[in-house]
Design brief:
Elements: E1 4-9, E2 12-17, H1 28-42, E3 49-54, E4 58-60, H2 65-68, H3 73-91, E5 97-101, E6 104-106, H4 108-115, E7 118-122, E8 126-128, H5 142-150, H6 152-161, E9 165-166, H7 167-172, E10 178-180, H8 185-197, H9 201-217, H10 219-232, H11 237-247
Parallel strand pairs: 2-3, 3-5, 4-6, 5-7, 6-8, 7-10
Antiparallel strand pairs: 1-2, 8-9
Helix pairs in contact: 1-3, 3-10, 4-5, 5-6
Bound molecules: acetoacetyl-coenzyme A.
The site of acetoacetyl-coenzyme A has 22 residues, from helix 2, strand 6 and helix 4.
Length: 258
């Protein structure tokens, strides 16, 4: 594995996304590693709970803009599907998954945290859905999981304004369960995972599954619909210009609406 570090602490697995040079942006290879790793953990009875975190100053700064910038709508649709599969592997893992959000959780990073069962944040965490500023919609489930987590009005404010919120605002809207000092976050997340791991394994898995029964019923279909809308944006000049500007570290030209 190139982009994930896997550490076991007794019954708790700590998965660290380790691509800090790109702020842990989710390139296709990283998405594939997530899918494979969570797929393997599903079959590992020794793992009772999982903590997912990021190396460096980001949890995940989003989907990989450098990879996406030249996508055709068809390629964007395939990328959204790859993200959906990876995130479904996280969400449907039989064991509970705690996101320890250590820094930026933007775009696909906020969406990945939403695919986890419980979110804890460092005071340095920043959450946001900046996609419309890049000429696209959220494409890894954000339009579906964010409103389910914090309500449509608050989700739409984040998605349509593209403005990030800090950890305390995330706590206030219920996006995270608790905020810790940066140096305490991982230990607190592991401690919660250990508490979960001491409970009856069959019951813990069944309880997670039960809570997700309703939420998952229409989710895969809705996320496929989101993927189609995401893909349409890749036929616009605005998407090409905004992503080129990010990669070239310049201000994008004003949006044209096409
Ligand atoms: N994709 C690709 N590369 C990224 C990236 C991303 N999402 N985010 C950061 N990087 C890269 C930068 O290009 C830079 O690379 P170089 O050193 O090679 O130039 C490196 O990571 C460090 O980033 P910055 O220099 O920008 O760090 P900063 O501290 O100045 O800024 C930041 C941090 C505000 C998070 C800024 O990096 C940023 O705005 N990143 C993009 C955030 C974003 O828009 N995410 C949404 C992506 S779209 C999406 O996720 C779609 C979806 O739903 C599927």
């Amino acid at each position: 594995m190139e982009y994930l570090l896997l550490e076991t602490r007794g019954p708790v697995a700590v998965v660290t996304i380790n691509r800090p040079q790109a702020l842990n942006a989710l390139c296709s290879a990283l998405l594939e590693e997530l899918r494979e790793t969570f797929g393997a953990m599903a079959r590992d009875e020794a793992v009772r709970a999982v903590v997912l975190t990021g190396a460096g100053k980001a949890f995940v700064a989003g989907a990989d803009i450098a990879e996406m910038r030249g996508f055709t709508p068809e390629e964007a649709n395939a990328y959204a599907a790859r993200g959906a599969q990876a995130f479904a592997a996280v969400e449907t893992l039989p064991q509970p998954v705690i996101a320890a959000v250590n820094g930026y959780a933007l775009g696909g990073g906020c969406e990945l945290a939403l695919a986890c069962d419980i979110r804890l944040a460092s005071e340095k965490a920043r959450f946001g859905q900046p996609e419309v500023g890049l000429g696209i919609t959220p494409g890894f489930g954000g339009t579906q999981r964010l409103p389910r987590a914090i309500g449509a009005g608050r989700a739409l404010e984040m998605i349509l304004s593209a403005r990030p919120i800090d950890a305390h605002q995330a706590l206030a809207v219920g996006l995270v369960n608790a905020v810790y000092a940066p140096e305490a976050l991982l230990e607190e997340a592991v401690r919660l995972a250990e508490t979960i791991a001491r409970n009856a394994p069959v019951a813990v898995r069944a309880a997670k599954r039960a809570v997700h029964l309703h939420a998952r019923r229409a989710l895969d279909e809705d996320i496929a619909g989101e993927g189609r809308l995401f893909a349409q944006c890749f036929a616009t000049e605005d998407q090409k210009e905004a992503m080129a500007a990010f990669v070239e570290k310049r201000t994008p030209a004003p949006f044209q609406g096409r």
